[in-house]
Amino acid sequence: MAIAKAERLMNLALCLLGTRRPLSKRELRGSIEAYLEAGSDDSFNRMFERDKDDLRELGLVIATVENLDGEVGYLARRDSNRLPPITLDAEEAAALGLAAKVWQQARLAGAASGALQKLRAAGLPEDVDPYEAHGALEPRIPVHEAAFEPLMLACRDRRPVVFDYRKAAAAHPEPRHVEPWALECWRGHWYLAGWDRDRGAERVFRLSRITGRVRSRGTGFTAPVPDVVTVRETVASWAGEIADRSALIRLRAGAGYPLRAKATKVRELGDGWDELEIPYGHGLDAWLVEFGPVVVVLEPAELRADVVDRLRAVAKG
User: Fold this and answer.
1) Distances, alpha carbon 117 to alpha carbons 84, 123, 125, in Å
2) pTM for this predicted structure
C-alpha cells in the first residue's frame, strides 16, 4: 500500500508540474491509473484531497484556478516550485566536499558520491580538490557493522528496534528493546544511544557487539528524546576517561598498548611486567577484562573484585 501511494503521489505531482494550464479533477482522474480504479466519485474525491494535501506538506506549491465556466483546475507552476540557484564560494564548496568524502568507504558512499556531483554542478570547480588544503589528511568513517544501516534508518524514522546484544563480559547475547536516538563514531567504533525499554533507562550500545539482525517494531517511542544526546561523553565515562580516581594495575611488557596510552605513570617491575597508574571511572572493569591474563588489578580493591567477578562469569559460560 505504501508503494502504491508513493507512486500515485508521484504521478499526480508529474501531472501538475507538466501541464501549462490548470487541470480539472475530471482530467486528473482520467490521467492517473490509480484514480481510474477508484470505486466511486466520493472515493476518488477523498483520495485526491488527501493526495493534494500530502503533496503540499512535502513542499509542492499547488495553485487552484477557476476558469470562466466556474470549473476549478489545479497546476504546480515551475517557477513557484524551483529552488533558487545555489552559490558556494571556494571554502564552502571545499568544506562540503570534504564532508561528503568522509563517507566514501561507508554504506552511504553512493549518496555521498551523488552529493559531490551536485557540488560540482553548484560551483565546485573540477580542478578543486577538497583535500588540497589538507593534503596529509584523508578522513574516513569506517562502517563495517551490519547493524549500522538499519539503526541509522531507525534513528531517522523514530522507530523502535530489537536486537541481540553481547555485553563485554557476557558469554551469550541477550535481546534488547531499544528506542534509538543517535549514532556516533568514537575512536574508530560506532555507538548507539537510546532508551532501553527493558531497563527503563538511557543506554549506549557498541555496534560491534550487536549480533544477528536488527528488527524494527511498529510502535512509537514511549520516552521523550533529549535535545542533546551525549554519546561520546557517556562512552568516555564508561571507559574511565572521565574520572577523578586512579587505578593501579600490572601489565605484561609489550602488551596492552591502549592502556599504556592512558597511563599517567609507568614503572618497570622486571620479569616481563610493568606497573601502570590509569584513570578509573565507571566501566573500567569491563574494559580491563577484555585484556585477559596480561592485566592484573592491584588497587582499588572494589575494582579488583569487579574484574574477578566478571572473569568468573566468563569462565562459567
Assistant:
1) 18, 10, 11
2) 0.46
